[in-house]
């Protein structure tokens, strides 16, 4: 029942972020608890057999598959494909995000719309757009040009399930070891990546988990009733 509660929390969190740009869903992974060896102490601790302790959620695995591309037409919006993540500077240090919704702050620096974190270039430096630039283009390789002049190249890190990334809030992650984005990763200007969650799929999963929880609850109640009868009724006989 506790495992189903944890799974329900993960599904609810996915549903809550269905409109979060670049969000990567969490998938609960179940495992069985270690079995206990039952022994008969009246016969010299002879082995009776094993008793399973049920199952639990041992981790939440993040699904790093690419979400759908949604066209916005905003020149400062980018959608990333492959395993590429934007490198951004926060008060807590460098973080990584798939949220490519960007804007410019008062210093003409590229920052994320959510949180205002500075977007970094390939040398981990803030990206400043020249004052008064009218035509900003971002190539598939992340190269930024303002009125035809090269400004910087977006800093792109490669992150997948094998990189042991940790979610740290604000749709950002950290990784123990930073590596470049894999070949084939691209930056699409004027698009945003939607969350890779499915409302229908998550609702079906939520119903299935709820039914499993109710079944476990009824089994527990049946066992409790049987124990109660054994204690109260059988003793009278």
TrEMBL record:
Does this entry carry the keyword Cell membrane?
Answer: no
Would I find Signal among this entry's keywords? no
Q: Where is this protein localized, as stated in its record?
A: Bacterial flagellum basal body
- Cross-referenced InterPro entries: Flag_bb_rod_N, Flagellar_FlgE/F/G, Flg_bb/hook_C_dom, FlgE/F/G-like, LlgE_F_G-like_D1
One cellular component term (GO) for this entry is: bacterial-type flagellum basal body
* Main subcellular localisation: other
The GO biological-process annotations, alphabetized, read as: bacterial-type flagellum-dependent swarming motility
User: Where's the Flagellar basal body rod protein N-terminal domain?
Assistant: 1-24
Domain Flagellar basal-body/hook protein C-terminal: where?
188-231
Which UniProt keywords are listed? Bacterial flagellum, Cell projection, Cilium, Flagellum
- All copies of the Flagellar hook protein FlgE/F/G-like D1 domain together span 79-146
Q: Report the Pfam families cross-referenced here.
A: Flg_bb_rod, Flg_bbr_C, LlgE_F_G_D1
Q: Which family does it belong to?
A: Belongs to the flagella basal body rod proteins family.
Q: What is this protein called?
A: Flagellar basal-body rod protein FlgF
